[in-house]
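Homework help board

Subject: predicted structure for assignment chain

Our instructor gave us this sequence and asked us to write out the predicted structure in token form, then describe one feature. I got the tokens but I'm not sure how to describe them. Can anyone check?
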Amino acid sequence: MYSEDDLLPLSGLQHIVFCERQAALIHVERLWLDDAATVEGHHLHETTDSGKGESRGDLRIARSLALRNLKLGLAGVADVVEFHRLPPSATAGARLRSQPGLWRPFPVEYKRGRPKLHQADEVQLCAQALCLEEMLETEVPEGALFYGKTRRRHHVIIDEPLRDLTARAAARFRELIEKRLTPLARWEKKCEKCSLLVRCRPETIGRSTARYIRGLFSLGSPPGDGP
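My token output:
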């Protein structure tokens, strides 16, 4: 169990699953650049960042809910957590202040764009579910990702493989932070969509330093060409 002073930002798990170097540039070297995508993401979160709650019959909605998990050593903020009232026969669930009965937490994370091939978004959502489980002492078996481009929810089952991936991502994230490690750059197709592309410079991979410098000063030969 980690102390309150040792908690790392939950949002870093999304970065490390997408790219360990990106995670290190942001959280170790403290680099950040906004681009059109990140600005669009900020606009998408304007409603959820308001912190205003809402009630609709057997549904309670919390926005900008502070989260933590001492076992994983994470802290963050959930965009939206829905609480669904369970039937009177239920024996397990969360208890809400000034609300009778038991409730089932259902985290909803807002994302720009569309569902992705990697699981970075799912891991971030799972970490939120694990925080809710520890804080409320109840199971959170599912949640959802809402994507701005499709304007639809993507249902996510918080199963054991996803929980294991999330725990491993948290451990690796902590390792990078504590050891101040920044992995070497490696060009991949996904680099084209990274806001830190100009700082990361993965396109220089495969060139030796001496060869690259010679290329900069050679006439009629672009950097990286030549023997």
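Reply (TA_rk): Your tokens look well-formed. For the description, you could write something like this. The beta strands are 8-9, 54-56, 59-69, 74-85, 94-96, 99-111, 142-147, 152-157. That's the kind of observation they're looking for.
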